[in-house]
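Predict the holo structure. Ligand: iron/sulfur cluster.
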Amino acid sequence: MKTACPLDCYDACSVVFENGKLLGDKTHPFTRGHLCYKLNHYFDYPQLQSAYFEGEQISLEKALDILEEKIKSSQEILHFRGSGNVGKMQSITDLFFASIGATLTEGSLCDAAGQFGIEQGRGKNLILPLEQIEKSELVIVWGRNIGYTNHHILPYLQGKTLVVIDPVKTNLAKNAAMHLQITPRTDLELACMLARFVYMQNKEDEAFIEEHTEDFNFYADFIKSYRMVPTTEKIGVDLLDIATLAELMMEMKTVILVGNGVQKYAHGTEVVRAIDSLAAMLGLFGKEGCGVSFLGDTSLGLEDPFRVKARRVPKAEVDFGAYDICFIQGSNPAVTMPSSKRVQEGLKKSFTVVFGLYSDETAQLADLVIPAKNFLQKSDIRFSYGHEFVELMPKLQENENALSEYEFTKEMMGRFGLGELKAEEEYIEIFTQQLKKKGDYFVLPSYEELPYKEGFDESFCFIDEVEDEFDMLQEGYYLITPKAKNAINSQFKRDPYLYVPLRSGLHDGDRAVVSSEWGEVEMEVRLLAELRDDCVLAYAGSAINFVTPPQTDQHGNNAIFQEVKVKIQKVKE
Ligand SMILES: Nc1nc2c(c(=O)[nH]1)N[C@H]1C(S)=C(S)[C@@H](COP(=O)(O)OP(=O)(O)OC[C@H]3O[C@@H](n4cnc5c(=O)[nH]c(N)nc54)[C@H](O)[C@@H]3O)O[C@H]1N2
Ligand SMILES: Nc1nc2c(c(=O)[nH]1)N[C@H]1C(S)=C(S)[C@@H](COP(=O)(O)OP(=O)(O)OC[C@H]3O[C@@H](n4cnc5c(=O)[nH]c(N)nc54)[C@H](O)[C@@H]3O)O[C@H]1N2
Ligand code: SF4
Ligand SMILES: [Mo]
């Protein structure tokens, strides 16, 4: 029986469930028969078997009674939904919470800054189909750790010239033709330098610029405002390497795979827009074997029955302590939100309800825990932000001890007299009906073999200014906080260490206090030769969010985990 991995991952694997085992679908063109650690060890992480109130086991019925009563006697209710499972049915709970006047969230902890940057330039953030990556000659992996987060795409990079832009010497970087190990948060400057080399040689795509873009002259002035020598010094790589990469881009069919890493900053929108502007100058949109692929917008052109109007607060800034009830679904904010101390104190202050799979840190702080069904125990459908394929996720198992998001919503709508939901399968059908077909497979409603072939809805709009007030010279290390190999954010096998450069004066096994203006935390140290001397690294899912800023980017939609420098102090034995 086939289903799909529910996790928030580029790959969206097609899964075969056989004799109680999860296997990679051999026939699927992208999954190609293998999964990863997370699904291979899915059953090693025990699912909640019961509801809990103040630490005591209670029945599901009783849990819902308590929730109903509590909602009826409360004013301010927060519905905070994360990405523990990215199936479309997960957001059905929005219907209930919007109807009772709860506050929902806007923006994200993830990719909203980059998404906005792309929309400002191209209008729409279309997904680059795999066949265009296959047809390319040069692949630039820019702030995406493909070996960990997107490894099913590796076969598509075979035989291409590979360039990696990353402050860390990742395994992919070690195998690339070129690795630009730049200073963190200098990607915008690098994009401008590359554009300057193209411009100096008059190699911009004039016909494309004329037909599909506007205000190129302002962009030309903007890139010229970045002076070669000081900017290259700031980026921290050899000018000749930048010139060489520009040459390659001028000559070859180029695909740029942009990851989350470039945009965890206050100016994240502008960074992604600057990369897009470089691509537009070279005419990389609407051409075979070319394109820029960020985390694509899966909601494009989709009629979504769960889209609601509601009062919303920026997700990364949520003050949990300001609500009477915080209903947390599919998320572990005690670990994954910035500024963990503030988050944990807020959660303790309010009446916290967790609707999830595990007894994670947030569940342990919660007053009421409601167990959710896992992806095998309910019906759903999932899209991918990394490729065009869509997968159905039929219900394959029973579980009397937990609720699906549909069941929860239906029950609560009933209790509050808010009307009937459609049947579960009808909702799935609303999504399925909108899909396109490619061979035997479903693909996104917005799928086009060659995106932007007919140009953009409105002319491409180049970047021509940026505000960046971060003081790069302040004391401390840059913080790099990417995704761990065997975890998905806080789920599965986390990597708890603080990785430091060889010259930090610390040793493996030392304990160190990492601190910033936002907080501090003690962690165990590991040396990592792959780091620049000015960086430390701690993965998502570690305790590092004690030091990250509880703020959003300049446009107010995204977390900025890396907009900070940190100090390291060895703890004496
Ligand atoms: N330092 C640092 N922090 C980060 C990041 C980073 O790179 N560095 N990345 C950020 C990013 S990109 C993201 S997307 C966020 C993600 O952060 P979260 O949204 O918090 O995601 P997870 O940690 O995967 O949340 C997992 C919880 O979802 C629950 N869950 C799983 N499946 C289901 C289900 O089917 N139903 C229900 N109801 N619950 C379920 C489980 O109980 C689990 O504990 O983290 C952000 N935090
Ligand atoms: N194994 C695994 N897979 C995952 C996840 C997971 O937790 N674990 N999480 C999923 C989720 S929610 C998301 S959003 C995606 C994100 O997956 P990716 O897009 O790969 O994002 P990250 O892992 O956050 O960071 C990617 C790279 O950016 C680099 N980087 C950091 N700062 C900078 C910078 O300033 N400039 C440049 N050029 N590079 C920089 C980091 O060193 C890292 O190698 O992965 C998904 N897949
Ligand atoms: S986490 Fe990603 S790579 Fe692993 S099985 Fe799920 S979709 Fe595939
Ligand atoms: Mo994410």
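The pocket of MGD (ligand 2) is lined by residues 8-10, 83, 110-111, 142-145, 148-149, 165-168, 170, 184-185, 187, 259-262, 480, 482-485, 487-489, 540, 562 (CB under 6 Å). The radius of gyration is 24 Å.
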